[in-house]
Input
Amino acid sequence: FWFDDRAADLSERSGRSRRRPTGHVVSKSHPPTIITTMSSERSACSNEEALASLERLSAMLKDLDETGSKERGGEAADEQAASASASGHGHGCGRGLPLSHWRALSTDVAAAYRMIDDGSDRIRAASTKYTLVGKVDAAEGSKLSSDLLRGCELLGTGALVLHSPPAGCGRSARRYARAACRGAVSTVEALVRSFADGTARE
Output
């Protein structure tokens, strides 16, 4: 922090040790940390609104690039790396993704895993309540769909961070995160759809 020198001098003269910050310094040596803020007081949404959001989220997860081919020039880069590897000039490592970490996780990657864990816990806690209340009262159960949606959004955000180039995750980590998050979102989507079309209450 930067401090106003004159304010500091006046504070020392008056016997007070408190200093008032007047600005801050932003370091340019480190990339910005990805921070996701989600409102915990989001208004309740209907099953139809939650279902539409879940469908968009599912499509986003489906399009995630787990191979890194888009970052390295698309299919042409993959074909070039494959031919180099087959001819012996690529040493069998032409199609790998560069790793930025091994045992020690970066701040963004650790935050992404925490988001995935938090999203899974939220879905686990809300799904049973959503099902039981929805069986008794469809209108009240529909209000709980926003809790399921928030959990799925946390999963999607975590997977998106892991797939970003600055995260430096390898192909296996990307593939596992994508498959796990897609499976959870698809399950929640099927649950909400069953209440939206009424088949769950038949």
Remarks:
- The radius of gyration is 24 Å.
